[in-house]
C-alpha cells in the first residue's frame, strides 16, 4: 500500500551584521509531518543547534573549536512550534487536496570528504543532493555493500532560490584502504534511486607516479633551457 506523506516547513530568516565587511544569515527551520518533526537553527548553511524530539532535548552541533554558545528555552519553543506546525499542516492539506502535485527529481548528487583523507584518522563523508521538489529525500549509506546507520546524520530540507530543495547527509568514518562507501537517494520523482560511490585510496600510492611525471617534466624543461643557452653561445 502506497502511503502519502505530507510535510510542512516553516522557515524564519534574518541577517546578522557581524562587521562592516561580512554579513551572516541565520535561519530557523521548523518542519513537521503527522508522525515526525524537525527544528533546526542554521548559521549560513551550517547547523548550529537542533531539537532531538526522541531524546527530548536540544543539541548543540557546533564544532569543538568554535566559541561556546547557549540556547536557553530553544527546545521548549521548538516543542510549542510543533503543535502550531501540525495544525497548519492539517489546514494546508485540506486546502491543497485538489491541486496537482509538482514533482522534480534531484538535479545533482555529490559525495566528498570534509578533510583530506588520512588512513586511520576519523573523517566525515558528505552526501549533498539538490534541485528536488517536494521535500524531503530519503538518504541511505552503505560500507562495502552493507547498510550503515551508526554515525549518520541527515539535515532537514533547505530551500533553494528557485523553490526547489537541497539536503545534506553526513557519515562519520575512519578511512581504511580499499573500503567503498555509497550514498543512495530516494525521491518520489525518481523512477529509481540515485547512488554515488566513494572509494578509500591511499594518497601515497598515487603520489609516486605523479611525482615521477613531475620530475620528468622538470628535467625536460631544464634540458630545453640548456639547449637554447648552448645555441646562443654558439652563434656569438
Automatic annotation (TrEMBL):
<dbReference type="InterPro" id="IPR003006">
    <property type="entry name" value="Ig/MHC_CS"/>
</dbReference>
<keyword id="KW-1133">Transmembrane helix</keyword>
<dbReference type="InterPro" id="IPR050160">
    <property type="entry name" value="MHC/Immunoglobulin"/>
</dbReference>
<dbReference type="InterPro" id="IPR007110">
    <property type="entry name" value="Ig-like_dom"/>
</dbReference>
<keyword id="KW-0325">Glycoprotein</keyword>
<dbReference type="Pfam" id="PF07654">
    <property type="entry name" value="C1-set"/>
</dbReference>
<dbReference type="InterPro" id="IPR013783">
    <property type="entry name" value="Ig-like_fold"/>
</dbReference>
<dbReference type="Pfam" id="PF00993">
    <property type="entry name" value="MHC_II_alpha"/>
</dbReference>
<dbReference type="InterPro" id="IPR011162">
    <property type="entry name" value="MHC_I/II-like_Ag-recog"/>
</dbReference>
<feature type="signal peptide">
    <location>
        <begin position="1"/>
        <end position="20"/>
    </location>
</feature>
<dbReference type="GO" id="GO:0002504">
    <property type="term" value="P:antigen processing and presentation of peptide or polysaccharide antigen via MHC class II"/>
</dbReference>
<dbReference type="InterPro" id="IPR014745">
    <property type="entry name" value="MHC_II_a/b_N"/>
</dbReference>
<keyword id="KW-0391">Immunity</keyword>
<keyword id="KW-1015">Disulfide bond</keyword>
<keyword id="KW-0491">MHC II</keyword>
<keyword id="KW-0472">Membrane</keyword>
<keyword id="KW-1064">Adaptive immunity</keyword>
<keyword id="KW-0812">Transmembrane</keyword>
<dbReference type="InterPro" id="IPR036179">
    <property type="entry name" value="Ig-like_dom_sf"/>
</dbReference>
<keyword id="KW-0393">Immunoglobulin domain</keyword>
<keyword id="KW-0732">Signal</keyword>
<feature type="transmembrane region" description="Helical">
    <location>
        <begin position="206"/>
        <end position="232"/>
    </location>
</feature>
<dbReference type="InterPro" id="IPR003597">
    <property type="entry name" value="Ig_C1-set"/>
</dbReference>
<dbReference type="GO" id="GO:0002250">
    <property type="term" value="P:adaptive immune response"/>
</dbReference>
<dbReference type="InterPro" id="IPR001003">
    <property type="entry name" value="MHC_II_a_N"/>
</dbReference>
<dbReference type="GO" id="GO:0042613">
    <property type="term" value="C:MHC class II protein complex"/>
</dbReference>
<feature type="domain" description="Ig-like">
    <location>
        <begin position="106"/>
        <end position="195"/>
    </location>
</feature>
<comment type="similarity">
    <text>Belongs to the MHC class II family.</text>
</comment>
<protein>
    <recommendedName>
        <fullName>Ig-like domain-containing protein</fullName>
    </recommendedName>
</protein>
Amino acid at each position: 500500500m502506497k502511503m502519502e506523506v505530507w510535510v510542512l516547513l516553516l522557515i524564519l530568516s534574518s541577517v546578522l551584521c557581524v562587521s562592516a565587511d561580512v554579513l551572516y544569515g541565520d535561519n530557523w527551520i521548523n518542519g513537521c509531518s503527522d508522525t515526525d518533526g524537525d527544528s533546526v537553527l542554521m548559521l549560513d548553511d551550517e547547523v548550529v543547534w537542533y531539537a532531538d524530539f526522541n531524546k527530548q532535548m536540544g543539541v548543540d552541533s557546533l564544532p569543538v573549536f568554535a566559541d561556546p554558545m547557549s540556547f536557553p528555552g530553544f527546545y521548549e519553543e521548538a516543542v510549542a512550534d510543533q503543535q502550531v506546525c501540525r495544525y497548519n499542516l492539517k489546514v494546508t492539506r485540506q486546502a491543497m487536496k485538489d491541486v496537482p502535485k509538482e514533482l522534480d527529481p534531484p538535479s545533482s548528487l555529490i559525495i566528498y570528504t570534509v578533510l583530506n583523507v588520512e588512513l586511520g584518522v576519523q573523517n566525515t563523508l558528505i552526501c549533498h543532493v539538490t534541485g528536488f521538489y517536494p521535500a524531503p529525500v530519503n538518504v541511505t549509506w552503505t560500507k562495502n555493500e552493507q547498510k550503515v546507520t551508526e554515525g549518520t546524520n541527515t539535515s532537514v530540507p533547505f530551500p533553494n532560490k528557485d523553490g526547489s530543495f537541497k539536503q545534506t547527509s553526513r557519515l562519520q568514518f575512519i578511512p581504511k584502504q580499499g573500503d567503498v562507501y555509497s550514498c543512495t537517494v530516494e525521491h518520489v520523482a525518481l523512477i529509481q534511486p540515485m547512488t554515488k560511490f566513494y572509494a578509500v585510496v591511499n594518497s601515497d600510492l598515487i603520489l609516486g607516479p605523479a611525482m615521477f611525471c613531475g620530475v620528468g617534466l622538470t628535467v625536460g624543461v631544464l634540458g630545453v633551457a640548456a639547449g637554447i643557452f648552448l645555441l646562443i653561445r654558439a652563434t656569438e
